[in-house]
Amino acid sequence: HTSIIVHKDEFYYGAGGISSCAPGGTLLGPPDSVIDLGNTEVTEEIFLEYLSSLGESMFRSESYHFFERNCNTFSNEVAQFLTGRKIPSYITDLPSEVLATPFGQALRPFLSSTQFHPPGGNTFNRENGQS
Span of the secretion signal (predicted)? Predict the structure, then answer.
């Protein structure tokens, strides 16, 4: 699971769409590691407008796919918007590396149907930034 912490909140994407919580606030708890991608000049207002547009286009809840459109693709997209930097390729390449193994191929049908949504956050919406 990956997410982006910006403007004092953690934002992530799962089967429930774009959500937010206090940093480390999902039931997954604190992260195993944190990668500092730098600072942003993007204001909170512009960022929330951007998230709203993503939630209505690329990252709708029904668009979630465990291997192709997941928390990693969301984090990568948002990181580029905020800082111009991508998240490390060892993270974004992980789904294709798993699928390249016999074990990954055996698990693909199950994992493709999985609707992962880390509990503990608030679903993001346009009116107030979250619900």
Answer: none
pTM score, two decimals? 0.82
Query: How high is the pLDDT of residue 26?
Result: 82
Q: What is the pLDDT of residues 67-125, one digit of tens each?
A: 889 999 999 999 999 999 999 999 999 888 888 999 888 888 877 766 665 655 567 65
Of residues 7, 65, 71, 117, which has the active-site annotation? 71
Inform me whether the pLDDT recorded for 131 exceeds 60. Answer: no
Q: What is the CATH number of the domain that holds 23?
A: 3.90.1720.30
Catalytic annotation on 71? yes
The partner residues of 21 in beta bridges, in order of sequence, read: 10
Residue 26 domain flag: yes
